[in-house]
# Entry
Amino acid sequence: MQIDGDGLYLVAGLALLLGAVLPRLLKRYAISAPIAFLGAGLLLGFVVDRGQLSPLAEPKLTERLAELTILIALMGVGLAIDRPIGWRRWAVTWRLLFVAMPACVAAVAGLGWLLGLAPGVALLVAAVLAPTDPVLAADVQVQGPTTGEGAEPEEDDEVRFALTSEAGLNDGMAFPLVYLAVFVATKGAVGDWALEWVAWDLVGKTVIGVVVGAVAGRLLGRMAFSAPLPSLRLADSREPVLALAMTLGVYGLAEVLHGYGFLAVFVAALALRSAERGHDFHEELHSFIEQLEHILTWGILLLLGVAITGGLLKPLDLTGVLIGAALILVLRPLTAWLSVQRTEMRRSERWVTAAFGVRGVGSIYYLAYAGTDFADDLPWLWATVGFTVVLSVVLHGVAATPMMRLLERRRENA
# Structure
């Protein structure tokens, strides 16, 4: 039986109802909501037109849906972080971003090249799998802003903070690596474009994104909390749509100025958060964004499950399996663990931080964005990325709840 267009409304309604129930139902079990939605998508694939719901058939739709999901998630992540940004306060984050991420990309690209992939393809699969995901990692991230009069932000859970801040930053920082892969595959000799890549794609666009996010977030924060005109103080009128308007507006401005919009949105959320850190309006903004994020995430996972049922993984070979498994089980844990040595984290915290490099919607977006330049290898790339995301969703989803509880017990005992 195939469900027609009108029947999809029924499916959407049931999915939303399921999404409202599942997080509470599964809270005590080692089965995360993403696993359940992925499984539901696999089953749904037997009753819908799978050919029209594949990223290979609808690359632009896939790109836009994943893009919007990441944007909403980045705003939510930025609003959830209590800790003011700083070199020492964010020391673990900088190590994960500037040491672990490049090392992991180099290791995955090297493994792909040793397994017979062309240099551009090996670098692309490493780049699109580089970012840890702000969307699917909710179980190991900070749960929301600490607000209210006299509230003290909690800074003792270094694991949740490190994974949250890393996910917020490296989704934007993956862009230079994706461009590097595209240039390797399409622009010939490295000497012809290396300076351009370093000056513009690595440095220039990053600076624009950070500046746009910081300035826009600070200005909107002042308007929302301390504007001279009461009608402009959105914090007083409790307008949570500010978070969505800010997300889309900041992203659009950064992209128009040719900066990295993902990075701008996350920085803007941090700047807004710092404008009036204890105000409980932040909690309302975060709650509003979190609901939007859940709806978009459920949709992405359902569509991924449908695509897998429709044959997304058919081109998967031993090379793809080895790359995905090595990344999740060996390369990310090892590079991240080495990068956080000699920090104030306990040994068990270092291991958990290293192990939970969740891969998900960010990888889907980057492949949809850059895949047109790799048309001959695209089916294999989607199969490899799809396999890696599923492996991450299942392994990290099962392990997240017990591992976080174990860390909490050890902190209490200490």
Notes: The mean pLDDT is 86.
